[in-house]
Design goal:
single chain, 111 residues, mainly beta, 4-stranded antiparallel β-sheet, two-stranded antiparallel ribbon, 0% helix, globular, Jacalin-type lectin domain-containing protein
Length: 111
């Protein structure tokens, strides 16, 4: 897809899978990646652009403390952004949506 249609996160707590509310559209293609024990996301790279009259997330890529990259998801273009975490780790996400994923933010915690 040209943009990132939506975002939904799932994680396991004490053996139980928890899914967040999906934000964004209902289309797109599903992508999944798993983090190893002790691995965490410490950088998000992406871009935003106008698509069908909305400002949308056009690309997302996640990087971990173990040097792994997941993505990019979406074809990109537009204005690029980076959310690097020098000390700490990304422990959650929040977003804004209309017909698609329009914005993304992160929750941080100390290491």
């Amino acid at each position: 897809m040209t943009i990132v249609d939506s975002l939904e996160i799932s994680y396991v707590v004490h053996g139980n899978e928890v899914k967040t509310h999906r934000i964004g559209g209902s289309g797109g293609q599903s992508h999944e990646f798993k983090l190893l024990p002790g691995e965490y996301i410490n950088s998000v790279v992406g871009s935003v652009k106008t698509f069908r009259g909305e400002t949308c997330i056009a690309k997302l890529e996640f990087k971990t403390n173990l040097g792994k990259k997941h993505g990019p998801f979406g074809k990109g273009g537009g204005i690029e952004f980076t959310v690097p975490v020098v000390e700490g780790q990304i422990v959650g996400f929040f977003g804004q949506s209309g017909s698609f994923l329009n914005g993304i933010g992160v929750y941080l915690a100390p290491n």
